[in-house]
């Protein structure tokens, strides 16, 4: 190897080393930026009294706020309500979106692109725009101050989202699989259930989780449509946590409640992490 070739190889190796170091530093910074707020919430939830205002990174391991939450029937009931609302909203959204996404992704009919554009426009509407109209619908159906009103209301933003995303996944599935089944005499419904649905596990997992998170974190509709404490969901329950007096801000209890209500989402991500990654990367590589 000549001196010039050795010099070029050395520069190439240094460049690769610097790129690797830079990428590692960037990953560490992103992890700190995304995980530190949650870590600070945990640290704050384990402090009491004046220690809440001390800028220490190590927790005090005082579980008084967690014990209070676990003995609060209203807060525990709000978690159950959120699980019911988010779970039912996600299930209904996926069930309805499957048929709609198959029709939009595979069948040719007039105004198909217009329907897709309308769905996209609805999915990006601000909630405040439809709040008054949705409130009248909830009252008309007799659902005011009932948990079912939230499932009904949340479909207005989870259903268009799931339809739009699942349509893209179905369009990425090779048409040859569907055509072979149709040639064998299968109906479109049979093709959807027996051919496409088994291939859409990652798509359903990732889309369903995102819809679940949307329903779990929603605040405006939950605050407007629910009046009594026993029917409230987690975001509203956290917002109504009060201190021991009118001059005390319950920072510690709020942080403890935030940590508790984030755990179900973390568990879901850990359980479905493989399918979520596969669903988010589906269609990224062609050929």
Automatic annotation (TrEMBL):
Keywords: Cell membrane, Membrane, Transmembrane, Transmembrane helix, Transport
Membrane topology (UniProt): Multi-pass membrane protein
InterPro entries reported in the protein's UniProt record: BP-dep_ABC_trans_perm, MetI-like, MetI-like_sf
Entry keyword annotation includes Membrane: yes
Record CDD domains: TM_PBP2
Location, primary (coarse class): membrane
Domain ABC transmembrane type-1: from-to ranges: 79-272
Compartment(s) of residence: Cell membrane
Keyword Transit peptide tagged: no
Any Pfam family hit: BPD_transp_1
Gene3D superfamilies found in the cross-reference section: MetI-like
PROSITE patterns (UniProt xref): ABC_TM1 (PS50928)
Residue intervals passing through the bilayer: 21-42, 79-103, 115-135, 147-170, 191-213, 251-272
Family, per entry: Belongs to the binding-protein-dependent transport system permease family.
Name listed for the protein in its UniProt record: Trehalose/maltose transport system permease protein
């Amino acid at each position: 190897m000549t001196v010039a070739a050795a010099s070029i190889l050395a520069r190439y190796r240094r460049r690769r080393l610097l790129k690797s170091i830079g990428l590692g530093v960037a990953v560490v910074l992103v992890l700190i930026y995304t995980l530190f707020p949650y870590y600070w919430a945990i640290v704050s939830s384990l402090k009491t009294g004046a220690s809440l205002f001390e800028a220490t990174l190590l927790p005090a391991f005082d579980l008084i706020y967690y014990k209070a939450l676990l003995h609060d029937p209203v807060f525990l009931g709000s978690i159950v309500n959120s699980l019911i609302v988010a779970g039912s909203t996600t299930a209904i959204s996926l069930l309805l979106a499957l048929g709609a996404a198959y029709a939009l992704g595979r069948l040719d009919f007039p105004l198909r692109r217009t329907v897709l554009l309308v769905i996209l426009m609805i999915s990006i509407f601000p909630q405040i725009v439809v709040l008054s109209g949705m409130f009248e619908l909830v009252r008309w159906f007799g659902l005011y101050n009932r948990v079912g009103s939230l499932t009904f209301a949340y479909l207005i933003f989870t259903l268009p989202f799931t339809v739009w995303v699942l349509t893209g996944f179905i369009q990425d599935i090779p048409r040859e699989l569907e055509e072979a089944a149709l040639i064998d005499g299968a109906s479109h419904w049979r093709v959807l259930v027996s051919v496409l649905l088994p291939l859409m596990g990652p798509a359903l997992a990732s889309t369903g989780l995102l819809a679940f998170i949307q329903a779990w974190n929603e605040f405006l509709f939950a605050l407007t449509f629910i009046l009594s404490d026993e029917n409230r969901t987690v975001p509203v329950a956290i917002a109504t946590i009060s201190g021991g007096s009118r001059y005390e801000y319950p920072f510690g209890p709020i942080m403890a409640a935030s940590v508790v209500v984030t755990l179900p989402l973390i568990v879901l991500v850990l359980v479905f992490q493989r399918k979520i990654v596969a669903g988010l990367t589906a269609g990224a590589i062609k050929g």
